[in-house]
Protein backbone atom coordinates (compact mmCIF):
# COMPACT_ATOMS: atom_id res chain seq x y z
CA UNK A 1 0.00 0.00 0.00
CA UNK A 2 1.32 3.46 -0.89
CA UNK A 3 1.91 6.15 1.72
CA UNK A 4 -1.11 8.13 0.48
CA UNK A 5 -3.33 5.07 0.71
CA UNK A 6 -1.99 4.15 4.15
CA UNK A 7 -2.72 7.66 5.42
CA UNK A 8 -6.39 7.16 4.61
CA UNK A 9 -6.58 3.58 5.81
CA UNK A 10 -9.12 4.53 8.48
CA UNK A 11 -11.49 5.44 5.66
CA UNK A 12 -11.04 2.17 3.86
CA UNK A 13 -14.06 -0.06 3.80
CA UNK A 14 -12.81 -3.57 3.35
CA UNK A 15 -13.35 -6.31 5.90
CA UNK A 16 -11.53 -9.57 5.28
CA UNK A 17 -13.81 -12.54 5.89
CA UNK A 18 -11.41 -15.30 4.87
CA UNK A 19 -8.64 -15.98 2.39
CA UNK A 20 -11.29 -16.24 -0.30
CA UNK A 21 -13.81 -13.50 0.43
CA UNK A 22 -13.89 -9.75 1.00
CA UNK A 23 -16.82 -7.60 2.09
CA UNK A 24 -16.97 -3.80 1.79
CA UNK A 25 -18.76 -2.28 4.78
CA UNK A 26 -19.97 1.27 5.28
CA UNK A 27 -19.71 3.49 8.33
CA UNK A 28 -22.79 4.37 10.42
CA UNK A 29 -24.79 7.04 8.66
CA UNK A 30 -23.17 6.40 5.30
CA UNK A 31 -25.69 6.73 2.50
CA UNK A 32 -24.46 3.40 1.13
CA UNK A 33 -25.29 1.52 4.35
CA UNK A 34 -28.42 0.16 2.72
CA UNK A 35 -26.22 -2.29 0.84
CA UNK A 36 -26.59 -5.65 2.53
CA UNK A 37 -23.93 -8.27 3.21
CA UNK A 38 -25.81 -10.70 0.99
CA UNK A 39 -25.32 -8.34 -1.92
CA UNK A 40 -21.80 -7.28 -0.97
CA UNK A 41 -19.97 -10.58 -0.50
CA UNK A 42 -17.40 -11.50 -3.13
CA UNK A 43 -15.24 -14.59 -3.45
CA UNK A 44 -11.70 -14.76 -4.81
CA UNK A 45 -8.80 -17.17 -4.89
CA UNK A 46 -6.92 -14.90 -2.46
CA UNK A 47 -7.54 -11.73 -0.44
CA UNK A 48 -4.53 -9.63 0.58
CA UNK A 49 -4.53 -7.41 3.65
CA UNK A 50 -3.20 -3.81 3.47
CA UNK A 51 -0.14 -4.83 5.49
CA UNK A 52 0.93 -7.33 2.79
CA UNK A 53 4.41 -6.38 1.58
CA UNK A 54 5.25 -5.76 -2.05
CA UNK A 55 7.58 -8.76 -2.00
CA UNK A 56 4.93 -11.07 -0.52
CA UNK A 57 2.40 -9.97 -3.11
CA UNK A 58 4.85 -10.64 -5.92
CA UNK A 59 5.80 -14.08 -4.60
CA UNK A 60 2.19 -15.16 -4.11
CA UNK A 61 1.00 -14.02 -7.52
CA UNK A 62 3.51 -13.20 -10.22
CA UNK A 63 6.41 -15.51 -9.40
CA UNK A 64 4.50 -18.57 -10.66
CA UNK A 65 3.67 -16.77 -13.91
CA UNK A 66 7.38 -16.19 -14.56
CA UNK A 67 8.11 -19.86 -13.88
CA UNK A 68 5.47 -20.89 -16.39
CA UNK A 69 6.72 -18.39 -18.98
CA UNK A 70 10.09 -20.14 -18.83
CA UNK A 71 8.20 -23.33 -19.69
CA UNK A 72 6.56 -21.77 -22.74
CA UNK A 73 3.27 -20.45 -21.33
CA UNK A 74 2.09 -16.86 -21.72
CA UNK A 75 1.03 -14.87 -18.68
CA UNK A 76 -0.67 -11.68 -17.54
CA UNK A 77 -0.75 -9.50 -14.47
CA UNK A 78 -2.93 -6.41 -14.28
CA UNK A 79 -4.06 -3.93 -11.65
CA UNK A 80 -7.68 -2.78 -11.62
CA UNK A 81 -9.48 -0.44 -9.25
CA UNK A 82 -10.73 3.07 -8.63
CA UNK A 83 -8.58 6.17 -9.03
CA UNK A 84 -5.94 6.58 -6.28
CA UNK A 85 -6.42 3.03 -4.97
CA UNK A 86 -2.76 2.09 -5.43
CA UNK A 87 -2.66 0.30 -8.78
CA UNK A 88 0.45 1.99 -10.15
CA UNK A 89 2.18 1.64 -6.78
CA UNK A 90 1.43 -2.09 -6.84
CA UNK A 91 2.89 -2.46 -10.33
CA UNK A 92 5.86 -0.06 -10.07
CA UNK A 93 6.45 0.49 -6.36
CA UNK A 94 9.28 2.69 -5.08
CA UNK A 95 13.07 2.25 -4.89
CA UNK A 96 12.62 1.08 -1.29
CA UNK A 97 9.55 -1.09 -2.00
CA UNK A 98 9.75 -2.25 -5.65
CA UNK A 99 6.51 -3.36 -7.25
CA UNK A 100 5.55 -6.35 -9.35
CA UNK A 101 7.24 -5.18 -12.54
CA UNK A 102 10.71 -4.44 -11.08
CA UNK A 103 10.54 -7.71 -9.12
CA UNK A 104 9.71 -9.47 -12.38
CA UNK A 105 12.84 -8.01 -13.96
CA UNK A 106 15.01 -9.24 -11.09
CA UNK A 107 13.59 -12.76 -11.12
CA UNK A 108 13.56 -13.12 -14.89
CA UNK A 109 17.19 -12.15 -15.37
CA UNK A 110 18.23 -14.58 -12.66
CA UNK A 111 16.50 -17.48 -14.40
CA UNK A 112 16.49 -16.73 -18.14
CA UNK A 113 20.09 -17.56 -19.11
CA UNK A 114 18.90 -19.54 -22.13
CA UNK A 115 16.66 -16.77 -23.46
CA UNK A 116 16.88 -13.57 -25.43
CA UNK A 117 14.49 -11.02 -23.94
CA UNK A 118 12.88 -8.01 -25.57
CA UNK A 119 10.34 -5.52 -24.25
CA UNK A 120 7.60 -3.21 -25.52
CA UNK A 121 5.53 -0.58 -23.74
CA UNK A 122 2.09 0.40 -25.07
CA UNK A 123 -0.22 3.18 -23.90
CA UNK A 124 -3.94 3.42 -24.71
CA UNK A 125 -5.08 7.01 -24.21
CA UNK A 126 -8.46 8.36 -25.33
CA UNK A 127 -8.92 5.28 -27.55
CA UNK A 128 -5.60 5.81 -29.33
CA UNK A 129 -2.57 3.52 -29.06
CA UNK A 130 0.91 4.96 -28.51
CA UNK A 131 4.42 3.55 -28.17
CA UNK A 132 5.83 4.81 -24.86
CA UNK A 133 9.35 3.94 -26.03
CA UNK A 134 9.15 6.08 -29.18
CA UNK A 135 11.94 8.65 -29.38
CA UNK A 136 10.30 11.37 -31.48
CA UNK A 137 9.08 14.59 -29.87
CA UNK A 138 5.68 14.28 -31.54
CA UNK A 139 3.38 11.58 -30.24
CA UNK A 140 2.12 9.43 -33.10
CA UNK A 141 -0.71 6.99 -32.51
CA UNK A 142 -0.31 3.50 -33.94
CA UNK A 143 -2.66 1.23 -35.84
CA UNK A 144 -3.97 -2.11 -34.66
CA UNK A 145 -3.77 -4.80 -37.34
CA UNK A 146 -4.53 -8.50 -37.49
CA UNK A 147 -2.39 -11.35 -38.76
CA UNK A 148 -3.13 -15.06 -38.48
CA UNK A 149 -6.07 -14.27 -36.24
CA UNK A 150 -4.00 -12.23 -33.76
CA UNK A 151 -4.03 -8.49 -33.13
CA UNK A 152 -0.74 -6.62 -33.13
CA UNK A 153 0.35 -2.98 -32.94
CA UNK A 154 1.89 -1.82 -36.22
CA UNK A 155 5.36 -0.22 -35.89
CA UNK A 156 5.54 -0.92 -32.15
CA UNK A 157 9.16 -0.94 -31.04
CA UNK A 158 10.42 -4.11 -29.39
CA UNK A 159 13.75 -3.40 -27.68
CA UNK A 160 16.27 -6.03 -26.54
CA UNK A 161 17.15 -5.95 -22.84
CA UNK A 162 20.08 -7.81 -21.33
CA UNK A 163 19.98 -6.82 -17.67
CA UNK A 164 17.83 -5.54 -14.84
CA UNK A 165 19.41 -2.11 -15.22
CA UNK A 166 18.46 -1.89 -18.91
CA UNK A 167 14.91 -3.00 -18.18
CA UNK A 168 14.52 -0.48 -15.36
CA UNK A 169 15.83 2.35 -17.55
CA UNK A 170 13.40 1.38 -20.30
CA UNK A 171 10.52 1.40 -17.83
CA UNK A 172 11.50 4.83 -16.51
CA UNK A 173 11.70 6.18 -20.07
CA UNK A 174 8.20 4.96 -20.81
CA UNK A 175 6.78 6.34 -17.58
CA UNK A 176 7.99 9.82 -18.47
CA UNK A 177 5.93 9.64 -21.67
CA UNK A 178 2.75 8.44 -20.00
CA UNK A 179 -0.33 10.67 -19.81
CA UNK A 180 -1.14 11.83 -16.28
CA UNK A 181 -3.39 14.56 -14.91
CA UNK A 182 -4.70 16.01 -11.68
CA UNK A 183 -8.11 15.12 -10.27
CA UNK A 184 -9.68 15.59 -6.84
CA UNK A 185 -8.81 11.97 -6.04
CA UNK A 186 -5.20 12.06 -7.18
CA UNK A 187 -2.78 14.89 -8.03
CA UNK A 188 -0.88 12.59 -10.40
CA UNK A 189 -3.58 10.33 -11.81
CA UNK A 190 -2.84 7.93 -14.66
CA UNK A 191 -5.12 8.84 -17.55
CA UNK A 192 -4.36 5.84 -19.73
CA UNK A 193 -4.02 2.07 -19.76
CA UNK A 194 -0.45 0.80 -20.13
CA UNK A 195 0.85 -2.63 -21.13
CA UNK A 196 4.51 -3.52 -20.52
CA UNK A 197 5.33 -6.78 -22.31
CA UNK A 198 8.38 -9.01 -21.98
CA UNK A 199 8.99 -11.29 -24.97
CA UNK A 200 11.06 -14.44 -24.47
CA UNK A 201 12.96 -16.13 -27.32
CA UNK A 202 14.73 -19.42 -26.59
CA UNK A 203 18.33 -19.72 -27.77
CA UNK A 204 17.46 -22.93 -29.67
CA UNK A 205 15.02 -20.96 -31.86
CA UNK A 206 15.90 -17.26 -31.48
CA UNK A 207 13.45 -15.95 -34.09
CA UNK A 208 10.28 -17.60 -32.75
CA UNK A 209 8.45 -16.15 -29.76
CA UNK A 210 8.65 -18.70 -26.94
CA UNK A 211 6.40 -16.94 -24.43
CA UNK A 212 5.22 -13.51 -23.36
CA UNK A 213 4.53 -11.84 -20.02
CA UNK A 214 2.29 -8.76 -20.04
CA UNK A 215 2.00 -6.43 -17.05
CA UNK A 216 -1.02 -4.12 -17.35
CA UNK A 217 -1.65 -0.97 -15.33
CA UNK A 218 -5.24 0.02 -16.06
CA UNK A 219 -6.43 3.58 -15.59
CA UNK A 220 -8.79 3.95 -12.64
CA UNK A 221 -12.52 3.65 -13.08
CA UNK A 222 -14.16 6.79 -11.71
CA UNK A 223 -17.15 9.11 -11.61
CA UNK A 224 -16.76 12.66 -12.92
CA UNK A 225 -18.47 14.22 -9.89
CA UNK A 226 -16.24 12.34 -7.48
CA UNK A 227 -13.00 13.29 -9.21
CA UNK A 228 -13.98 16.86 -10.12
CA UNK A 229 -13.51 16.07 -13.79
CA UNK A 230 -14.44 18.60 -16.47
CA UNK A 231 -13.35 19.40 -20.01
CA UNK A 232 -10.44 17.18 -21.07
CA UNK A 233 -10.44 15.29 -17.76
CA UNK A 234 -14.12 14.45 -18.20
CA UNK A 235 -13.46 13.24 -21.74
CA UNK A 236 -10.60 11.07 -20.44
CA UNK A 237 -12.82 9.64 -17.71
CA UNK A 238 -15.50 8.81 -20.27
CA UNK A 239 -13.01 6.96 -22.49
CA UNK A 240 -11.50 5.14 -19.50
CA UNK A 241 -14.84 4.01 -18.13
CA UNK A 242 -16.09 3.03 -21.58
CA UNK A 243 -13.07 0.84 -22.29
CA UNK A 244 -13.31 -0.80 -18.86
CA UNK A 245 -17.00 -1.51 -19.41
CA UNK A 246 -16.17 -3.10 -22.76
CA UNK A 247 -13.50 -5.22 -21.10
CA UNK A 248 -16.10 -6.22 -18.54
CA UNK A 249 -18.49 -7.32 -21.29
CA UNK A 250 -15.75 -9.44 -22.87
CA UNK A 251 -15.05 -11.14 -19.56
CA UNK A 252 -18.75 -11.68 -18.92
CA UNK A 253 -19.07 -13.36 -22.31
CA UNK A 254 -15.99 -15.52 -21.75
CA UNK A 255 -17.39 -16.63 -18.42
CA UNK A 256 -20.77 -17.41 -19.99
CA UNK A 257 -19.09 -19.47 -22.71
CA UNK A 258 -17.17 -21.45 -20.11
CA UNK A 259 -20.38 -22.28 -18.30
CA UNK A 260 -22.41 -22.90 -21.48
CA UNK A 261 -20.04 -24.47 -24.05
CA UNK A 262 -22.96 -25.54 -26.26
CA UNK A 263 -24.39 -22.01 -26.44
CA UNK A 264 -21.28 -19.90 -26.90
CA UNK A 265 -21.67 -16.22 -27.70
CA UNK A 266 -19.24 -14.10 -29.76
CA UNK A 267 -16.83 -12.21 -27.52
CA UNK A 268 -16.98 -8.45 -28.34
CA UNK A 269 -13.22 -7.90 -28.43
CA UNK A 270 -13.56 -5.26 -31.17
CA UNK A 271 -15.56 -2.93 -28.93
CA UNK A 272 -12.52 -0.87 -27.84
CA UNK A 273 -8.76 -0.51 -28.32
CA UNK A 274 -8.12 -1.97 -24.87
CA UNK A 275 -10.07 -5.13 -25.57
CA UNK A 276 -8.46 -5.52 -28.99
CA UNK A 277 -4.97 -5.19 -27.53
CA UNK A 278 -5.92 -7.63 -24.76
CA UNK A 279 -7.61 -10.16 -27.05
CA UNK A 280 -4.94 -12.83 -26.71
CA UNK A 281 -4.21 -11.86 -23.08
CA UNK A 282 -7.66 -12.47 -21.65
CA UNK A 283 -7.72 -15.89 -23.30
CA UNK A 284 -4.54 -16.97 -21.51
CA UNK A 285 -4.48 -19.32 -18.52
CA UNK A 286 -2.69 -17.03 -16.08
CA UNK A 287 -4.80 -14.04 -15.13
CA UNK A 288 -4.34 -12.31 -11.78
CA UNK A 289 -6.23 -9.25 -10.58
CA UNK A 290 -5.42 -6.83 -7.81
CA UNK A 291 -8.32 -4.94 -6.29
CA UNK A 292 -7.34 -2.05 -4.02
CA UNK A 293 -10.50 -0.90 -2.28
CA UNK A 294 -11.59 2.60 -1.42
CA UNK A 295 -15.04 4.18 -1.52
CA UNK A 296 -17.82 1.66 -1.10
CA UNK A 297 -19.97 3.09 -3.90
CA UNK A 298 -17.32 2.54 -6.53
CA UNK A 299 -15.67 -0.49 -4.96
CA UNK A 300 -18.75 -2.66 -5.25
CA UNK A 301 -18.60 -2.28 -9.04
CA UNK A 302 -14.86 -2.99 -9.00
CA UNK A 303 -15.31 -6.13 -6.90
CA UNK A 304 -18.17 -7.47 -9.02
CA UNK A 305 -16.12 -6.82 -12.18
CA UNK A 306 -13.19 -8.85 -10.91
CA UNK A 307 -15.13 -11.54 -9.10
CA UNK A 308 -16.92 -12.72 -12.24
CA UNK A 309 -13.59 -13.59 -13.83
CA UNK A 310 -12.05 -15.46 -10.93
CA UNK A 311 -11.53 -18.51 -13.13
CA UNK A 312 -11.03 -17.25 -16.72
CA UNK A 313 -10.02 -20.60 -18.18
UniProtKB/TrEMBL annotation:
One of its GO terms (cellular component) is kinesin complex. ATP binds at residues 81-88. GO terms for molecular function: ATP binding; ATP hydrolysis activity; microtubule binding; microtubule motor activity. Residues 1-313 form the Kinesin motor domain. GO terms for biological process: microtubule-based movement. PROSITE patterns: KINESIN_MOTOR_2 (PS50067). Keywords: ATP-binding, Microtubule, Motor protein, Nucleotide-binding. SUPFAM superfamilies: P-loop containing nucleoside triphosphate hydrolases. Belongs to the TRAFAC class myosin-kinesin ATPase superfamily. Kinesin family. PANTHER family: KINESIN-LIKE PROTEIN SUBITO (PTHR24115:SF1008), KINESIN-RELATED (PTHR24115). This is Kinesin motor domain-containing protein. It comes from Aphanomyces astaci (Crayfish plague agent).
